[in-house]
Amino acid sequence: MERVLAMILAGGASERLSVLAEERAKPAVPFGGKYRIIDFTLSNCANSGIHNVAVLTQFNPRSLTQHIGVGRPWDLDRTSGGVVILQPFLSRSARDWYKGTADAVYQNLDFVERQKVDEVLILAGDHVYLMRYDHMIHAHRLRDAEVTIAVTEVSPSEVSRFGIVVLDHNERVVAFTEKPKESVSNLASMGVYVFDKEILIRCLEEYGEKGGRDFGSDIIPEVIGKFKVYGYRFRGYWRDVGTVEAYWRANMDLIVDLPELNLYDVSAQVRTVHHGRPPVKVGPKADISRSLIANGAIINGRVENSVIFPDVFVQEDAIVRESIIFEGSTVAKGAIVDRCIIDKQVWVGPGSYLGFGDDMTPNKDEPKNLNCGITLVGKGARIPADARIGRNCKIGCWVRDSDFASKFVTSGESISSRASKRHSVKMPLEEQ
Prior knowledge:
Layout: E1 4-9, E2 30-31, E3 35-36, H1 38-47, E4 52-56, H2 62-68, E5 82-86, H3 101-106, H4 109-114, E6 119-124, E7 127-129, H5 133-142, E8 147-153, E9 163-167, E10 173-178, E11 187-196, H6 197-208, H7 215-223, E12 229-233, E13 238-240, H8 244-252, E14 281-282, E15 287-289, E16 292-293, E17 298-299, E18 302-304, E19 307-308, E20 313-314, E21 319-321, E22 324-325, E23 330-331, E24 336-338, E25 340-342, E26 347-348, E27 353-354, E28 375-377, E29 382-383, E30 388-389, E31 394-395, E32 408-409, E33 414-415
């Protein structure tokens, strides 16, 4: 795959992930106990023999670019090819911030033109899946296609969330509709496209100049019927983790007995930045069932159906159920965390109860994002001792005890920090 350029779109803001993406780009959100979401796309490139990779960033890029670095975990630290970060900039030719997926590539056409490649692989950096891109590119070449779209089957109830593709008996794309209310097809575009290099340049020069911002809504509908556009069926596990519920469920998918997404397959290894940590320590009163526990964690309490990241401390008599707890957080003695997502460096005070009660009132600030019973706690927050926090609550980043008017937070409520995060205790850059 020496004649392929991969361009990973990793710059979009993600309000739907609420506080989890408040201080980091969505592709940099931790996932699965030790990874970042973008690790899956980067690992797919590495496992497919694609070593010429550009990552297009924009919103909150610092932790993402720090994580990628020179690309060593993915064998991208090369003198020829390797990984390059493309951030938006203003110049005589660059007009503005990236306004969409296609506009991001359009503003970097000079970079694309300089690459000695035959195809350009366009990838989303915020999906969770394992895929051999080289197989897709091989199919693209065998069909003499000019554009190939990766598609996967979704539930008919979910078609309104995706771009939906209709294929003929030869697998050629005959229709594409972005987020239709209903459709005769349930084949969703995965946001993975193979373009012949010259076709991509031609399309973006023509439609980009007309204001075409996104591949899904602007570019792909225009190329159907004008070029040879084929579908490539992907039958493995694929999840768009763009909502709180989808993100939580994708993590929970990893703890079943035979997960569809197999992190233990050595032929499709998911690579990430390695930080040397001691082994997991399990105390004499610990009780762990059906969970992922990362190195550096200390478990002295009970953990059920949960994903625990490195350096998490679950103290004695504490209970963690159906939750995800990011790196460096502590659940103090006697605390209960039930169906929550806890960001990094959070202190859950002794005797507190997060995810309390059965009231499923949607969050008043973000009713579309927080409505499935999951409570979020932002990075660096401190939960007071003996607090009772309901469901669908949002506890902001860097919240302190003094930000709580009461120790009882009803379902659907939010707590935000009154002080600027700049005056809070800061974490090292690599831990963000």
